[in-house]
């Protein structure tokens, strides 16, 4: 499994800094470059999603349609998909074979954005195309539907960060809740399939259609466990008096760091005040290990990725290098060097290093310890049990859910130098490390930046398996107040 970095040659890979990128150009299918292709298949199914148009991220396989993961390594010609960061690696959707995606949120007329008035901003990543397509209602162009929905993947925040930057709803389900059959793995122990939509009700209908056991995915939760989780959620919901009396909401101290944009802190406070007005009790909670979440996430994700991406060698999978090389290994090295993008190569190198025997102790083993500590601390704050373990400690906070901002700042411009792309998702990665579900909802109040007003998302996180509670609370909050965007 080790040593995939050996098969990378050629150009030096510069160290991680988000590149200044001014080369945005509108796509062939839409002004934001959110869609990589489209097709006109009448898909009038009979099920709950019959008649709806859904766009699917480039890293999820579909029958009869090639999957490129926005990578030259898997480049093909046809299809209809959402642009994304190559192989789902990134936080701004700047690293893609198809070029960067622009964020539709700043433009009043989404079908006709004026890029000279407001220079394009990043949609967030890696599911930037999916969020931009929902925000700009791009699916409506092809099928006559009211709102658009997209399916993306979230390994460390890739559904929630774009949802926050583009001002749409996005859910990262519990680990195991929605089948990952057909997903091109980035980091298997963190990967989930999520949903993006304009309204919380649309998340719910799509979630209900997707959240079921799947014989093709052994990590997918079985029916017995689903029944147990449904019972737990309905006992919480039936305990609540209308609208949200009796709900216990945890405010996580570490999720409000001093670098958090002050307007986003205020917007989150507005939402917390509203929850309280609707009857919720606010409880302060603190998780001391949370500051180490980002380091643990990247060591884990990149180690798993370096192993997963070993299969793209241009022999069995992936693009071929035109010139034959002197040896089999040189051919693989040439294929991988020519066809992976810079960011993916950087991550393969870092991940392979973390897996070496010299680095294992200081990197991967430490990450596993941090991950266990975060999971232990977070699960203990909930009143309901985490059914993945036989017994658990309780911290006494006894909350039903946690509320915190989704992102540290509003969407940066595509041509703006950001300090580090890896810092974009400091607030999102812990949910993947713990496997817990999170729903990011767009606040109605926007963040004033220059003379634009940009969206910000608020995250609602619950005990593992309590996805339906998040959907219930967010729908109730949207119906009973004006703090969330509709
Ligand atoms: N930005 C994170 C990363 O690049 C998350 C990506 C994801 O969730 N797919 O690893």
UniProtKB/TrEMBL annotation:
Sample GO molecular function, one term: glutaminyl-tRNA synthase (glutamine-hydrolyzing) activity
Q: Which residues form the Amidase domain?
A: 46-471
Residue ranges annotated as coiled coil are: none
Q: Name one GO biological process term.
A: glutaminyl-tRNAGln biosynthesis via transamidation
Which InterPro entries does the entry link to? Amidase (IPR000120), Amidase_dom (IPR023631), AS_sf (IPR036928)
Query: Pfam family of this protein, just one?
Result: Amidase
How is this protein annotated for GO cellular component? glutamyl-tRNA(Gln) amidotransferase complex; mitochondrion
> Per its UniProt entry, which superkingdom is the organism in?
Eukaryota
What protein name does the entry list? Amidase domain-containing protein
- The protein's organism comes out as Malassezia caprae
The root-end lineage is: Eukaryota, Fungi, Dikarya, Basidiomycota, Ustilaginomycotina
């Amino acid at each position: 499994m080790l040593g995939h970095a050996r098969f990378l040659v050629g150009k030096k890979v510069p160290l991680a800094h988000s590149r200044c990128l001014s080369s945005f150009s509108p796509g062939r299918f839409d002004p934001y470059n959110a869609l990589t292709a489209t097709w006109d298949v009448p898909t009038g199914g009979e099920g709950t999603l019959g008649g709806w148009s859904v766009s699917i991220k480039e890293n999820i396989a579909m029958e009869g349609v090639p999957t490129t993961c926005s990578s030259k390594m898997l480049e093909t010609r046809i299809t209809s998909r959402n642009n994304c960061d190559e192989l789902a690696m990134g936080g701004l959707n700047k690293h893609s074979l198809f070029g960067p995606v622009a964020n539709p949120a700043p433009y009043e007329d989404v079908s006709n954005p004026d890029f000279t008035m407001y220079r394009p901003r990043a949609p967030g990543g890696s599911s930037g195309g999916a969020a931009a397509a929902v925000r700009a209602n791009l699916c409506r162009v092809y099928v006559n539907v009211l709102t658009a929905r997209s399916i993306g993947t979230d390994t460390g925040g890739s559904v929630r960060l774009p949802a926050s930057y583009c001002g749409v709803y996005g859910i990262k389900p519990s680990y195991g809740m929605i089948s990952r059959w057909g997903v091109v793995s980035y980091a298997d122990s963190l990967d989930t399939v999520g949903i993006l939509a304009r309204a919380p009700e649309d998340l719910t209908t799509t979630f209900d259609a997707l959240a079921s056991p799947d014989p093709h995915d052994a990590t997918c939760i079985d029916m017995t466990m689903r029944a147990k989780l449904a019972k737990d959620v309905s006992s919480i919901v039936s305990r609540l008096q209308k609208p949200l009396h009796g709900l216990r909401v945890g405010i996580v101290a570490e999720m409000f760091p001093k670098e958090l944009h002050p307007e986003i802190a205020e917007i989150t406070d507005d939402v917390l005040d509203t929850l309280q007005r609707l009857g919720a009790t606010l409880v302060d909670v603190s998780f001391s290990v949370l500051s180490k979440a980002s380091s643990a996430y990247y060591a884990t994700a990149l180690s798993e990725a370096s192993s997963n991406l070993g299969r793209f060698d241009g022999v069995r999978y992936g693009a071929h290098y035109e010139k034959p090389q002197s040896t089999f290994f040189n051919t693989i090295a040439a294929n991988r060097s020519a066809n992976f993008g810079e960011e993916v190569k950087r991550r393969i190198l870092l991940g392979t290093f973390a897996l070496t025997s010299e680095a294992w102790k200081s990197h991967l083993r430490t990450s596993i310890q941090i991950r266990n500590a975060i999971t232990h601390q977070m699960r203990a704050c909930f009143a309901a049990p985490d059914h993945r373990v036989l017994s658990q400690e309780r911290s006494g906070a006894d909350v039903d859910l946690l509320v915190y901002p989704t992102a540290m700042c509003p969407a940066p411009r595509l041509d703006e130098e950001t300090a580090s792309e890896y810092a974009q998702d400091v607030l999102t990665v812990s949910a993947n490390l713990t496997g817990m579900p999170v729903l990011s909802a767009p606040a109605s109040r926007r963040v004033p930046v220059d003379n634009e007003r940009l969206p910000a998302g608020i995250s609602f996180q619950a005990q593992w398996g309590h996805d339906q509670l998040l959907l219930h609370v967010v729908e109730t909050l949207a119906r009973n107040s004006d703090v969330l965007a509709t």
